[in-house]
Amino acid sequence: MALSFVQKRFMSSALQKWAYNLSGFNKLGLMRDDVLYEDDDVKEALRRLPESEIDARNFRILRAVQLSIQKDILPKDQWTKLEEDRLYLTPIVNQVIKEREEREEWEKNY
Amino acid sequence: MAANITKITFFRATATRGLATCPPVPIGGLTEYEIKNTTLPNNLVVASANNESPISRISIVVRAGSRNETPDNAGVTHTLRICAGLSTKNSTQFAITRNIQQVGASLTCSSDREVVAYTLEGTKQAIEKTLPFLTEVATQQVFRPWEVAENVPRQRLELALRSPQLRAIDLLHKAAFRRGLGNSLYSAKYQLGNISSETLQHYVASNFTTGRTAVVGLGVDHSQLVNYAQGLSLETGEGSTTPSPYIGGEIRSDKGGNLAFVAIGGAGGALKDTKERLAFAVLQRALGIGPQVKWGTTDNGVLSKAVGGDVQYAISAVNASYSDAGLFGTLIAAPSASAGKIVEAVVKVLKGGALSDADVNRGKNQLKTSVLLDSESGSNIIGCIGSQAALVGSAQSGSQIAAAIDSVSTADVNA
């Protein structure tokens, strides 16, 4: 599934690929959701992830940290491609944010 | 609040009855009411009674009790009961809880061996606002895995709070019926946390069908309830019901303490056999279920008389009627030293006794009183009507049942 956060209006698919490669995390074998900043909502979303996803994410992060210690990157054929990247965490984060906002609305009014 | 209620009855009395010679409606609602039963084309049963009570109660009752568990999903009904009120397709757990609390209604889930019931109780306005939540909780549950996992400590607490009498009766059922009706109402300790979200969803999908559901209302208008029931989106179907015949056996469970709880039972009357089950109910009362006078210590039941008064004990006859089988027996709680003697005396009565007319009449009167007393309390009766509607297909009011009890004769009970 292609990343949906990229603005589709002004970018052709070649431009999308170039921007994705420019960001650099795919050269370490990471996906976009691996590099999300871990604030409270993301922490709660991570708690809800099934174990298999957590294991895969931990492996990717560990591999990326090892590479960055060695100041190395993966060979080009192992880079994460734009088509392969999956937003596995963002939908859950959005749900967590929605629930939190519902709670805050209630606290405000009652 | 009280002033509002008297105002309403005053106006109703003058508008509909002309002369104000009839008594005002008691605060708990009328006790003599007619129960209307309808069966929808998709086999959903709707039963309601208008007892003109200020509190309305609506209950969705499904034949998904613990008898439908298989060895694979043992404990799923306990988990289902614990998980009532968790997030649904259109609503989060937070929204359900807060919205219902805000209007002062209450939503409970109760389950027994044959049915699971979701009951919403509140004033009429409260019910109007929160009825969608009842639909959500009963029919659109999603069982998010993290929410189900969060409720395991609560389940553990429920298991720890069971009294020994409860466990004795549970084990009696297991010894009597093995599978089906013998499945425990509670999850086994090793199953806690093992019931996954998929198991729950599969169980709900296969058992929450229109052929196994009843919608029951108390203090609501029947046609409105029928409309509501027609709008419920459940899959059509009958589901499967495996028969659960009485088999019999013995189970001993050793726990600490110096009280022994002995439950002895035999085959009882099934719900579908009206004469049998009423006879067994009368027999239960005739044998005695404990002191019937508040703060009293004497019990005139046949069992108490047989055991005598020189040892401390508590004794009660036990009667349970399910849709295709029944269980009848006694529960004895006594210090372990004297338990043996008491059990022998009780077994003698159960095996050989013939009851006199006086005993049977006492049993009949006590049973009638308790049925009618129960029907005065809205919260009791909603459960009663719910089970009847779901299991038998139509519900009878308390006074109809009382009339039927009158027809039980001594010969029926002694047989």
UniProtKB/TrEMBL annotation, chain A:
Species: Asbolus verrucosus (Desert ironclad beetle)
Record GO biological process: mitochondrial electron transport, ubiquinol to cytochrome c
SUPFAM superfamilies to which the protein is assigned, alphabetical: 14 kDa protein of cytochrome bc1 complex (Ubiquinol-cytochrome c reductase) (SSF81524)
Designated name of the protein: Cytochrome b-c1 complex subunit 7
Topology with respect to the bilayer: Peripheral membrane protein
Keywords of the record: Electron transport, Membrane, Mitochondrion, Mitochondrion inner membrane, Respiratory chain, Transport
Family: Belongs to the UQCRB/QCR7 family.
Cited function: Component of the ubiquinol-cytochrome c oxidoreductase, a multisubunit transmembrane complex that is part of the mitochondrial electron transport chain which drives oxidative phosphorylation.
Signal sequence segment: none
TrEMBL record, chain B:
Domain of life: Eukaryota
Name of this protein: Cytochrome b-c1 complex subunit 2, mitochondrial
Residues annotated as domain Peptidase M16 N-terminal: 45-187
Localisation: Mitochondrion
Record flagged with keyword Mitochondrion: yes
Record keywords, A-Z: Mitochondrion, Transit peptide
Organism: Asbolus verrucosus
Main localisation: mitochondrion
Domain Peptidase M16 C-terminal: 194-367
